[in-house]
TrEMBL record:
Pfam families, sorted: DUF1989
Coiled-coil features, chain-numbered ranges: none
InterPro entries xrefs: DUF1989, UAAP1
UniProt-recorded name of the protein: Urea carboxylase-associated protein 2
Domain DUF1989 residue range list: 8-179
């Protein structure tokens, strides 16, 4: 089946939009060393959003890969990772800010460089959140697709610059109607002195219906409970709609 929608997110670029429940979204790194920061919010109630601590604690992990889900602060599943050709996606390093970008890559401004100025993750997120009635107060730790960050025995966080290769792919399936916010900006732990230039190809297709035996559902007992919370929410929504 051909994609319903395609888009290429250029280096330094940003995007946001509503992806309805039951879709699958493919992200493809068009070069090595990609980092795509992702935020998720419930499209109908944006006070509910991706919760990093609950996601990691419930699934007993510090990174995400196939089978893992992105949980909300209400214990529901916003999205699932249904396929992954990378094997490790960072959850703990956060996003870059203006000061870091200036210090690491040199000072650039829109006034002097126009659309070639070097953007930070925080600025990209802020601009997209405002479009949807949100603000910096609504920023939470993102998922950094294609990035690998480990922690050594001393507690030092280590970025692995050669983790993702050109053509690396990851697929997310939306389990709720979500507002997705993307920033194609450097990982804050990436110490390379050249601003990364890796476009990300995005595609959206309908997903197959989720069954009780789905790999993400059965990945661990906590996942199943989160899916049950999600299914119950939508059953109640359908009941209320029928009454109205």
């Amino acid at each position: 089946m051909d994609p319903l929608w395609r888009y290429t997110l250029r280096p330094g670029g940003k995007w946001s939009g509503i992806i309805r429940r039951g879709m699958q979204m493919r992200f493809t790194a068009m070069g090595p060393g990609a980092n795509l920061s992702v935020l998720l919010y419930h499209a109908r109630n944006r006070q509910e959003r991706y919760n990093m601590p609950d996601t990691l604690k419930a699934q007993h992990t510090v990174f995400l890969t196939r089978g893992n889900v992105l949980m909300s602060d209400n214990g529901r599943v916003l999205a699932s990772i249904i396929d992954d050709r990378v094997g490790w996606h960072d959850t703990i390093s956060g996003y870059s800010d203006r000061r870091q970008i200036d210090e690491q890559y040199g000072l650039t401004t829109f006034q002097s460089h126009r659309n070639d100025w070097l953007r930070s993750g925080q600025e990209n997120f802020a601009m997209e959140l405002v479009r949807h009635g949100l603000s910096l107060r609504d920023l939470v730790p993102p998922v950094n697709l294609f990035a690998k960050v480990t922690v050594d025995e001393t507690g030092q966080m280590i970025f692995h610059p050669h983790h993702a290769l050109a053509g690396s792919e990851v697929w997310l399936r939306t389990e709720m109607d979500v507002l997705m916010v993307l920033s194609n900006t450097p990982n804050p732990l990436d110490r390379r002195t050249v601003y990364p230039s890796v476009p990300i190809a995005l595609e959206v297709r309908p997903a197959s219906p989720v069954t009780e035996e789905d790999f993400c559902v059965t990945y661990c007992p906590e996942n199943r409970r989160a899916f049950e919370n999600t299914w119950e929410y939508y059953r109640l929504q359908e009941f209320v709609g029928a009454k109205e």
